Structures are given as C-alpha cells and as structure tokens.
Automatic annotation (TrEMBL):
Reported cofactor(s): [4Fe-4S] cluster
Protein name: Dihydropyrimidine dehydrogenase
Residue intervals of the FAD/NAD(P)-binding domain: 150-457
InterPro entries: DPD_II (IPR028261), FAD/NAD-bd_sf (IPR036188), FAD/NAD-binding_dom (IPR023753), GltD-like (IPR006006), Helical_ferredxn (IPR009051)
One term of GO molecular function: 4 iron, 4 sulfur cluster binding
Domain Dihydroprymidine dehydrogenase residue range list: 26-136
Record's keyword annotation contains Ribosomal protein: no
Keywords from the named record: 4Fe-4S, Iron, Iron-sulfur, Metal-binding, NADP, Oxidoreductase
Species for this entry: Sphingomonas lenta
Record keyword 4Fe-4S present: yes
Amino acid sequence: MAADAMLKFVQLDQAYPDKRAAAARVADFRELADRYAAPDAGEQAGRCSQCGVPYCAVHCPLHNHIPDWLRLTAEGRYREAYELSNATSTMPEICGRICPQDRLCEGNCVIESAGHGAVTIGSVERFITDMAWDQGWVEPVAVGPSRGQSVAIVGAGPAGLSAADYLRTYGYDVHVYDRHDRAGGLLTYGIPGFKLEKPVVMRRVDRLRAAGITFHQGFEVGRDASLDELRARHDAVLIATGVYKARALDVPGSDLPGVVEALDYLTASNRRGFGDPPASGAGALDAAGRHVVVVGGGDTAMDCVRTAVRQGAASVKCLYRRDRANMPGSAREVANAEEEGVDFQWLAQPTAFVGGAQVEGVAVSRMRLGPPDASGRRAPLPDQGGPETIRADLVIKALGLDAEDLPQLFGAPGLGVTRWGTVLVDAKSMMTSLDGVFAAGDIVRGASLVVWAVRDGRDVAANMHKWLKARAEQGRMAA
C-alpha cells in the first residue's frame, strides 16, 4: 500500500458529492447529487484512519468490510473495492444511497468522534458500485448446480430479493410472488426517485430475472393461492412481505376527503415517475397547487414533504409532536427538506382535521416535552393554550406501518404471530410455526431499515439452505 494513500483526515476535510442547488433539484425527481469524480472518491476514502477496531463495520448490520474497501478505493483499485463491498451485500449501491449512515457507519466513525468529520462511507460505496455497473464489472448471479428443489418467496422487497439472490447461487429454483406489478417493494413504490432513482432498482431485478428466478407479479397469497397451496408447490416458503398497514391517527375528521395515507401518496407519485397512467381518483394524491400538511417525523414523512414540494405545492408544513432533537428521521433529510422550503412545526400535535366536503385545515395543539417514556425518549405532553388551525387542503399521515393480518390474508390460521401482528420465528432457524415456512425482514422485525432487510435475506437464505439439504438427505435415506 502506498504510504501516503491513507490517514489523510488530518489535512483533508470531509467532503460529500456536491448537491444541486435546492431551486434546481425541486424541479425534478433526480437524485440530489451526482457521484464523486474518481480522484475525489479516492481522496475521501483515504481519510479513513484504518483503525484497529472498525466501529463502522461493527455498526453496519451487514458488517461490511468498510476499511478494506476504503483502502482499495484510495489506492485506485476500484474493481477490487467493489468486489469486496459486493461480497457482503446484494445491494451496495442501494444501501449507499438510502442507509441512514449518520446513525450507522458514519455516525460511529472513529475520526468523527475525534472531531475530524466522518469518512463519507455511503457516498464512496455508491461510487464504486455505480462504476462497477458502468464498467461491466457486475457479473451475473453465479447459479449453483441444480438441487431439484424449489423455493417460494412471498414478497419482492429487499429481504425477498436478497434471499432470492443467495438461494439461486445455492442451486434452488426460486419463484418470487408479489402483489405489485413491479418487483422491489418499497424500494420501487415507497422511496422517491430523488433518494433512489428507479433504474438503480430495476437493474438489480433484471439481474435476478436473468439468473432464472421467476417473478409472479400481481399475485396475492390468499387470493390467487393459499399459503398451503404454495407449500404444496414448493419445498420451502419464505414470507418476506414487509409491513403495509398504515397506523391510524384517531382524531375527528380522519375520514375527510383530502386526508390520505403516506404510502398511497408516495406510490401514486412513483407510478407517475414510471409513466403509468393515473388511476381513478389519483388527482386526490397530487399536491400541485395545494396547501399540504404532513403529520409525522420519520423518514417517510421527509419523503412526503419533499415529494409535495416537487409536485408544486403552494405550501408544505410538517407537524411533529416532539422537537428536532427527538425526531426519528435522518437529520440530513430534515436539512434537505428545509433547504427546499419545508416549514417544520415542532412540538405540534394534530387534534382534529376540519372541513366539510374536503379537508380545509388541521387543528393543532402545542406540546412540551416531559420525562422520558418507556423507550427513553422524552414524552410529549400538552402545553397551555387552546388549539390553533393550520390551513390544509391535503393532509398526509406518515405515522408508520404495521403488519397486516397474515394468518387471515393467507388462509393460514396456524401461522404464529406476535401481539403486534409480526410473524413469530425461531430466533436461530428463522422458521415460523409452520414446518418449512420461514420469515424475514420487516414482517418479523416491524418497520425497519432496508439494510436490515438485506441482512435478514442473507441470513434466512443460509438457514433455508441448511434445512433443505437436511430434508433432501432424509429423502435419499428413506428411498
């Protein structure tokens, strides 16, 4: 290794790829910044201190070999850097774009703790993987010798796609069943293009399809086949549906026209980006010319406010019942939204949606923070004074997602679930209460990060492989 390739953090400041000016970027759904030029990526990677205990890797759910591929990038060995990054992740360029690095790898960077500014890990990961696609270094899935066994995966989100990738390399016939007309789950329909441009997702799906993985689109388990019928068709089943049931906001006026769910709103916007014809009533999900209020403080709320700005809303406000320091969303996303003109109303709790034939406003009570609640965060309490009304003719509820009632939907009363509706699995094997049926991703964890779904897909594929091998061996012995 060149002696001067690393440890540049003392003389070289942290620098992310330049963002486009806010006035320019709100005019389209392109990503905020282009990737680094090669010398810039190498220099920023060279800021890594190559510390003995890489907390960045420890705090990455995938335990990526981050210092090692940063060193390779700093030395200009981009293909090797990509290959090492790709060795632990099926979607490195996607995680590089949408992981909350400020809470994971970069937030735990040793030089960040020393006051020098974290290494820009996510941006370098995106750089080396995008270069790999451009240069043709991304190889087809290495399909293993056929095992004569097939697997059904229910759900084409990140957990399902990650598991499909690994299971195909093990040599299984893989069938992915998904309710949507395109694979990708929330990567495709939930996350806006300014964070994750859709060709980035589709090329991953195309790579899996080229490996012989069969996608059954527009397929709903429970409508088109029961879970038991899938179990009869395949040797094992993976449930990786994610969570899609919107959390309720139980205040008067929640059923007024113009009060919509975040996922419905984002899905309609992403479909427009694909060029799909508008669905019936889709105009209710367009913010153009309207006064928009988004309720919530997570990353989905940030996606909604920034989408509304790009659709040409007359005004966009975000209501959150805690303060900035206690909000769950990424601080970077809040900063991006503020640059784009979003008005954040901190310590604000909706008490009613008001209007007649259409929502016209949101009644808001101001809050203060009390002692910490069971989660350790300071609990919001009503402050003095009466409610005020904020003008709104489109209200988007972004309060999070819960699990659907899968035992009922799938016609599988024997499928064990928790009191939150998530699927119960054995902690070691990841198998459900039904023999040969596994589960992974948000449907087990609850709403979580894409990187955790990718990790779960990797882990469950290994567990399914172990179980299927044992089952095949038992069949040979019985014969």
